[in-house]
Amino acid sequence: MSRFEIYSPEGLRVDGRRWNELRRFECRINTHPDSSDGSSYVEQGNSKVICIVNGPMEPSSKAEMSTSKATLKISLNVTPFSSIDRKKRSKNERRIQEIVTSLKRTFEQSIIVNKYPRTTISITLHVLALDGGLLSSITNAITLALIDAGIAMYDYISSVSAGFYNNTPLLDLNQLEESDVSFLTIGVVGKSEKLALLLLENKIPLDQLESVLAIAIAGGHRIRDLMDKEVRRHGDLRLSKLANK
Amino acid sequence: MDILSVSKGSGFAYEDAEVGSDEDVDILIDEDETRGDDVQLDGSVKTSVVTPGELVTDDPIWMRGHGTYFLGTNTYSSVAGTISRVNRLLSVKPIRGRYEPETGDHIVGRIAEVGQKRWKVDIGAKTHAILMLGSVNLPGGVLRRKSESDELQMRNFLKEGDLLNCEVQSLFQDGSASLHTRSLKYGKLRNGYFISVPSSLIVRAKNHSHSLPGGASVIIGVNGYIWLRKTTEDISQANNTSLSKNATAISAKGQYNVGSGSVSITRLEEESSWEIYSDVNDEISSTLRSTITRYANSIKALAFCEIGISVERIISAYEASMAYEDSGKLVDRETMETIGQQVINGEKYRGQ
């Protein structure tokens, strides 16, 4: 037995949560109004992410232009000081590249890209602190920043991770749990049970997959509600200011 | 630290999750039905915010405009914004977004690229706008044909980085704009200072170029690009649409002559010399420079307070800024807030 228990017999996890509890989720949109078209800041537990969206705009080169739809450019910067062991991660690291590819595929589906032909949408991410749930916090940050930029989307993509340990599904893992538990990350489309993203890098028994997915989807819905609340709060604030016009 | 519980039951996860999500769906439908009724019955659309994926109406009677998409008979919002209804057309206006050009908009743009018989102009929209060689006034008069030699010396007229004010002539299928500068009030900009504000803040008006007190004039581009410059003789003449000028023209002569407020074609030919594409600034005195700076910072203060920008407000903010000796101090947060408040209060006072 290691120093800590992933899931104690009393039903508590390392940070005192129960199996079906999310970490603290806080988000802000329109954090960088002057330097971007859309921006957001997401805190999921101790993970902190900034997202900046610029566009739709004229592509910098003709080669990356599509005549039928918008092209997405995503750059992900995991800062060296984000995790406990300070190490420099390059943008070309394979893991980062994989995340970028899966994000690109996810958002090409959920943005109504054919509304913006001959344009580029550039998404820049900075991970300031990382405590598990890298992909999920990034996905949520992108969703919020895209909404702030006024880019047409079919629905929210809310993302959360869930793991499986000792016959119990665990929701929203932190860094400690991620290293010991096999887990998946999903992106839920709005209030539906459709998935826009599913990433499973290790193994979960097939007969248990359904229960893990169920708790992850429920968690995704909760995060969608929290993001929606923030979008509405900001929208109402804007509308009240517009009264001055 | 507050932790958010997803489902409170202690039973097995799957059933819990199912029940929870079913409840969510029920609530959703209830809310949306009332929303749909709101739109139909009062005729006044609810001003609250809708967010992407939200059901706007399930009535197939509505035409789907911008900011919406549909599945079957249901219309959903695709952006975060407010519902707007024009007759049967239902659209969602995003809270934030890039400038969307419309025919007739008076805008300020920057040349981004010189191409085959055309310039690409950055106007702050999703794509660059196009300015055809055929839609500019070239030295030598309006009726001049554009020859091959004109094509070859396009950079002598307008080159990358040049600012110009122009009008949206038409829109292409994909929403990008085609511009023209076929009037004396349009053309290359010089003698001034450029400011960019969100395009949503610009109040659309009949006229977008104005003379300001203190020897400066302003072009408030509908796209949120603003040009402040020295008032010169030809500018004050080109600003012929300003009401006060017309009024003085009438009163001075006692009668209104047809075309006295506008530029005749013959004059247009006289003025269309190489002068209009000049890159050289006139002599600008240091007092005028500080006046322009003060105007620029007043506009920044208005933009910071998210107050709609019109020429009246620019002047009123400028007057409010006179309380501060150093115009560099105007960009302090508190000062900008005070100036915004004064502009709003002043309007309320005058409105009473």
Automatic annotation (TrEMBL), chain A:
Molecular-function GO terms, alphabetical: RNA binding
InterPro entries per UniProt: ExoRNase_PH_dom1, ExoRNase_PH_dom2, ExoRNase_PH_dom2_sf, PNPase/RNase_PH_dom_sf, Ribosomal_Su5_D2-typ_SF, RNase_PH
Alphabetical UniProt keywords: Cytoplasm, Exosome
Gene Ontology biological process terms from the UniProt entry: exonucleolytic trimming to generate mature 3'-end of 5.8S rRNA from tricistronic rRNA transcript (SSU-rRNA, 5.8S rRNA, LSU-rRNA); nuclear mRNA surveillance; poly(A)-dependent snoRNA 3'-end processing; rRNA catabolic process; TRAMP-dependent tRNA surveillance pathway; U4 snRNA 3'-end processing
Pfam families linked to this entry: RNase_PH, RNase_PH_C
Annotated compartments: Cytoplasm; Nucleus, Nucleolus
Principal subcellular localization: cytoplasm
Cellular component annotations (GO), alphabetically ordered: cytoplasmic exosome (RNase complex); nuclear exosome (RNase complex); nucleolus
Record-annotated Exoribonuclease phosphorolytic domain positions: 21-151, 155-218
CDD domains according to UniProt: RNase_PH_RRP41 (cd11370)
Keyword Cytoplasm included in the entry's annotation: yes
PANTHER family recorded: EXOSOME COMPLEX COMPONENT, EXOSOME COMPLEX COMPONENT RRP41
Family per similarity comment: Belongs to the RNase PH family.
Subunit: Component of the RNA exosome complex. Specifically part of the catalytically inactive RNA exosome core complex (Exo-9) which may associate with the catalytic subunits RRP6 and DIS3 in cytoplasmic- and nuclear-specific RNA exosome complex forms. Exo-9 is formed by a hexameric base ring of RNase PH domain-containing subunits and a cap ring consisting of CSL4, RRP4 and RRP40.
Name under which the protein is recorded: Ribosomal RNA-processing protein 41
Species for this entry: Wickerhamomyces mucosus
Lineage: Eukaryota, Fungi, Dikarya, Ascomycota, Saccharomycotina
Automatic annotation (TrEMBL), chain B:
GO MF, one annotated term: RNA binding
InterPro entries: Exosome_cplx_N_dom, Exosome_RNA_bind1/RRP40/RRP4, KH_dom_type_1, KH_dom_type_1_sf, NA-bd_OB-fold, S1_RRP4
GO biological process: CUT catabolic process; exonucleolytic trimming to generate mature 3'-end of 5.8S rRNA from tricistronic rRNA transcript (SSU-rRNA, 5.8S rRNA, LSU-rRNA); nuclear mRNA surveillance; nuclear polyadenylation-dependent rRNA catabolic process; poly(A)-dependent snoRNA 3'-end processing; TRAMP-dependent tRNA surveillance pathway; U4 snRNA 3'-end processing
Coiled-coil segments on the chain, per record: none
Xref: Pfam families: ECR1_N, KH_6, S1_RRP4
SUPFAM superfamilies, per database record: Eukaryotic type KH-domain (KH-domain type I) (SSF54791), Nucleic acid-binding proteins (SSF50249), Ribosomal L27 protein-like (SSF110324)
Listed GO CC annotations: cytoplasmic exosome (RNase complex); nuclear exosome (RNase complex)
Domain RRP4 S1 residues, every copy: 98-170
Domain Exosome complex component N-terminal stretches: 49-86
Subcellular localization, as worded in the UniProt entry: Nucleus
Domain K Homology: residue ranges: 192-233
Subcellular location, principal: nucleus
Family assignment from sequence similarity: Belongs to the RRP4 family.
Protein name: Ribosomal RNA-processing protein 4
Organism (species): Wickerhamomyces mucosus
